[in-house]
Amino acid sequence: MKRQSVLIVDDEPDIRELLDITLSRMGLQTHSAASLKEAREMIARLEPDLCLTDMRLPDGSGISLVEHMQRELPHIPVAMITAHGSVETAISALKAGAFDFVSKPIALDNLRKLVSSALQMHSNTTQTESAVDEGLIGSTESIKTLRQQISKLARSQAPVHIHGESGSGKEVVARLIHNNGPRASGAFVAVNCGAIPPELMESELFGHIKGSFTGANQDKSGLFQAASGGTLFLDEVADLPLPMQVKLLRAIQEKTIRPVGASEEHSTDIRLLSATHKDLTMEVEAGRFRQDLFYRINVIDVRVPSLRERAEDIPELAKALLLRICRRHGDSAASLDTSALGALQEYTFPGNVRELENVLERTLALTDGETITAEKLVFSKKTRGTNSTSVEVPETDRGLDPPLEKARGNLEAFLESIEREVISAALEECRWNKTATAKMLGISFRSLRYRQKKLGLDG
């Protein structure tokens, strides 16, 4: 089997020798060039599996080599060697298309990880593009553009910020970037920054040692450590408190973390992806988000279109989601007729793809038969301008004071408690025969199963 090869581009003989020895011990074949001109000639002749270049070269910048490779041989990853602390330079290299960067003085462990990660990428991008096509459904131009971005970004280690409305599929995009990149065998760790209490944020991200604070009864690894070798996805990153933003910035720049209560730092090996439905630029202007952190996580910006912007994709997307729901619940395949597809396209879907999936799941659970018409669609709210129906709660009889008092401030919980009580009693009476229970209540078997799951009665 032909050994994988690496082209080292640096004008310092000592650096070239150090890299040559390190990479040779990894079983790699190495070639060296001392200038941009020499590097371009060797790349054209050898087509190495990886190019490792210094930023400053006698006849130009290493970024111009990155740009050359992006134009001529985009399947070959290029990693950049930058001066220590030169964050702006590293970001410029990543924006130009560099796979990743390593700073001088070169930490050999970090170098080995970078090289191993880069060489895991297959030179043929067809497989990646096919996987992205399957994971992102739609045929509109905005989705085609998004697929191309994902395929390209999967072959990089650059931090990516994904923005779009809630429910539009930001985590789907993040997972596709991870699953089709060199870190696919590692963990994908997703965390909603807005769901973690501020006082626990540092411990959750970086971990803590036993006794570092009240309740810390044992050592705990943080999410950075859980994502080691893989990808850390920070969803709703705009919700991070400002003090935590400072610590996150340091962790990203130094590639090290310090668990709460620890005296030593630990190196990290993650790819960072982030997302938010907010406009980060406006958050920076308002003083709620640090500008330096914004530049560090927003190296590459990806926008996920809302569902109403790609309404033409709704029929294809709805069919795929319905099939997925049927498979998940072990149901026979259901279908949407022309009227249902038309009604779905007329709706604006403020909750985007997530809301579409919820509508289909509710409809499937509450519908008899295999064909879903517009009249059977169950939206969460009254939908004007369509023929679809919605689940509506009758007004409470004002003369019934006790139920009104129980429902005050939380009608949904009150109604669920009644539904749970009725279904439990019916199941008991029918000795937990679901077919008989559904018949007694005048609902379908599928509807009973859906309600049981929703109310926690399916155990």
**Integer tally of domains:** 4
Strand content: 5-15%
Based on CA inertia axes, which overall geometry fits? Answer: elongated
Strands in their spatial order, largest beta sheet:
2-1-3-6-7
Radius of gyration: 27 Å
Quote the CATH topology of the largest domain: Rossmann fold
From the coordinates shown, what is the CATH architecture of the largest domain? 3-Layer(aba) Sandwich
Q: Quick one: CATH class of the largest domain?
A: Alpha Beta
The quaternary structure here is single chain
Which helices and strands occur, and which strands form pairs?
Blueprint: E1 5-9, H1 13-25, E2 29-33, H2 36-46, E3 50-54, E4 56-57, E5 60-61, H3 62-72, E6 78-82, H4 87-96, E7 100-103, H5 108-119, H6 126-135, H7 141-153, E8 160-163, H8 170-179, E9 188-192, H9 198-206, E10 207-208, E11 220-221, H10 223-226, E12 231-235, H11 242-254, E13 256-257, E14 266-267, E15 271-276, H12 280-285, H13 291-297, E16 300-303, H14 314-329, E17 335-336, H15 338-346, H16 352-365, E18 371-372, E19 378-379, E20 389-390, H17 401-407, H18 411-429, H19 434-441, H20 445-455
Parallel strand pairs: 1-2, 1-3, 3-6, 6-7, 8-15, 8-16, 9-12, 12-15, 17-18, 19-20
Antiparallel strand pairs: 4-5, 10-11, 13-14
Walkthrough of the structure:
The protein is α/β, with parallel strands linked by helices and 459 residues long. The protein folds into four domains: 5-119, Rossmann fold (3-Layer(aba) Sandwich), CATH 3.40.50.2300; 126-303, Rossmann fold, CATH 3.40.50.300; 307-390, Helicase, Ruva Protein, domain 3, CATH 1.10.8.60; 401-455, Arc Repressor Mutant, subunit A. It is built from 20 helices and 20 strands. The chain has helices at 13-25, 36-46, 62-72, 87-96, 108-119, 126-135, 141-153, 170-179, 198-206, 223-226, 242-254, 280-285, 291-297, 314-329, 338-346, 352-365, 401-407, 411-429, 434-441, 445-455; strands at 5-9, 29-33, 50-54, 56-57, 60-61, 78-82, 100-103, 160-163, 188-192, 207-208, 220-221, 231-235, 256-257, 266-267, 271-276, 300-303, 335-336, 371-372, 378-379, 389-390. The strands form seven sheets. It has a five-stranded parallel β-sheet with strand order 2-1-3-6-7, with helices on both faces. Helix 19 (434-441) crosses helix 20 (445-455). It starts with a strand and ends with a helix.
